[in-house]
Fold this protein.
Amino acid sequence: MIFLRELTKEDIPTINNWRQSRDLQDFFASPFRYINIETDEEWFNNYMKSRNTQVRLSICLKETNEIIGMASLVDIDRISRKAVYGGIMLGHVNNRMKGIGKEVTMLLLSHAFLDLNLHRVQGLWLLTNHASIKMGEACGFRREGVLRNAAYKNGEYVDLLLMAILRPEFDLIKNRDPQSPQKENNS
């Protein structure tokens, strides 16, 4: 259904268009901001200079190669072997609630643990984003704590949920899930 590839400069206009949607941005911990194309182009240029500490990927449909979203690992620390799950952005409503988020997260975790040799991946979820939290838990993330009033969104402070997954926990999930990316690669 989908595949991941590194973000390219050609993806930036599409991503910039998605960033203009308040509804889409409401799923993320950061507040809504208007972002012009030049800002996103500079963001991409900065990413290209810091690829050793970030992985930014386009989510594409296998049938058409069309970009339908993006996913990222950021703050990669090679000494402590950890990174921050930057989350998933699916640009169109019709691509949500179809299992794409879980598939992308499992591919991203597989890359983190099996390719980058990381030991821990952690992330922050809006405490009110129940569907995303449920998806993270289905991928093996465990709740570690709540950061009270940690983000400012839509005129109010909101709580964030800290969740993380360790490599041994991922291995257990991967071995249980017949649809896991690693199992597909070994068949």
